[in-house]
Each structure stands twice: as structure tokens, then as C-alpha cells.
Design a protein that fits this description.
With 158 residues, the protein is mostly helical. The chain has one domain. Helix content is 69%, strand content 0%. It contains 7 helices and no strands. Helix 4 runs parallel beside helix 7 and helix 5 crosses helix 7. The radius of gyration is 16 Å and the shape is globular. It starts with a helix and ends in a 10-residue tail after the last helix. Keywords: Membrane, Transmembrane, Transmembrane helix. GO terms for molecular function: phosphatidylglycerophosphatase activity. It holds the Pfam family PgpA. This is Phosphatidylglycerophosphatase A.
């Protein structure tokens, strides 16, 4: 039962079993849920989802790592949590959702400095923490982008 629940939650309800780019699909699903389910954009629910996906993710990805090996591609709950973190306290628009997705994937793939080092934490902690940090980096970067957009010659408004 424990392995089954870990697979369900850790794979983000099966997305982790997509045969190619499961992390990108999981991030995309989290972004699309945020975009099309208005209740998720409400701060109390988004914060709760981030906390739950992170706490459950540490447990589930740790269990999945024992079954599938180190940082298994099937464990994508970390991408879901990281994507939602990248959107936390960001003004809503389709553009900000798209930019947060791009920035989160960029930080998740490139793994600058502390994001890369976080993977060295044991078990589910390492799996989750690098994506939490990638989400924070994406969020902060998106804030800088949003500050710069009005200054551009074509004056993009969010």
C-alpha cells in the first residue's frame, strides 16, 4: 500500500510515467491547473498545495527512490511543487504563467549553484529541495522581469 500511494502521489497521478520529459509534463500540468482553475490562484489554497506537495513529495519521492534508484524520473511531484512556488505572489496573467514555466524549467535543468548542491541531500529531501530552490529562483527572476517589462520600448504590460 505504501509503495502504491508513493507512486500515485510521487508521479503526480501518473504524469511521471510519461515516456519522455516527464518533469516538463508535470511542470506544465501544474502551470495549466494554475491557469485554468481559478481557486488554485487564491493564496490560502496555493500555499496549502505547495506545503502538501512538498511534504508528501519528500516522503513519496524517497519511497520511489528506493524502488527505482537515485532521483527517479518517475518522481515528478517535485516539479509540481517547484512550479507552484514559481507562481507564488506573482500577479496573474497568462504571460506570467508562461514566463514562470519557462524560468522554472530553465533553473530546474541548468541547476545553478545551490540548486545543484541541494540534490546531495539524502533521499526525498534532495529530490524535492532542488526543485523548491529552482522555484524560488524562478519566482525571484520573474519579479525582476516584471519590473523590467514596463521599461522596454514596446511597453509590455502584465
Amino acid at each position: 500500500m505504501q509503495k502504491w500511494l508513493a507512486r500515485i502521489f510521487g508521479s503526480a497521478f501518473g504524469i511521471g510515467y510519461v515516456p519522455f520529459a516527464p518533469g516538463t509534463f508535470a511542470s506544465g500540468a501544474a502551470a495549466l491547473l494554475y491557469l485554468y482553475v481559478p481557486a488554485i490562484r487564491e493564496l490560502p489554497l496555493l500555499a496549502l498545495l505547495i506545503v502538501l506537495s512538498t511534504v508528501i513529495g519528500v516522503w513519496a519521492s524517497g519511497v520511489m527512490e528506493k524502488e527505482y534508484g537515485e532521483d527517479p524520473s518517475q518522481a515528478v511531484i517535485d516539479e509540481v511543487a517547484g512550479q507552484w512556488i514559481s507562481l507564488l505572489f506573482i500577479p496573474f496573467s497568462p504571460l506570467t504563467v508562461l514566463l514562470s514555466f519557462i524560468l522554472f524549467r530553465l533553473f530546474d535543468v541548468l541547476k545553478p549553484g545551490p540548486v545543484d548542491r541541494a540534490q546531495n541531500l539524502p533521499g526525498g529531501w534532495g529530490i524535492m529541495t532542488d526543485d523548491v530552490l529552482a522555484g524560488i529562483f524562478a519566482n525571484l527572476s520573474l519579479r525582476l522581469v516584471l519590473l523590467a517589462l514596463p521599461m522596454l520600448p514596446f511597453g509590455v504590460a502584465v
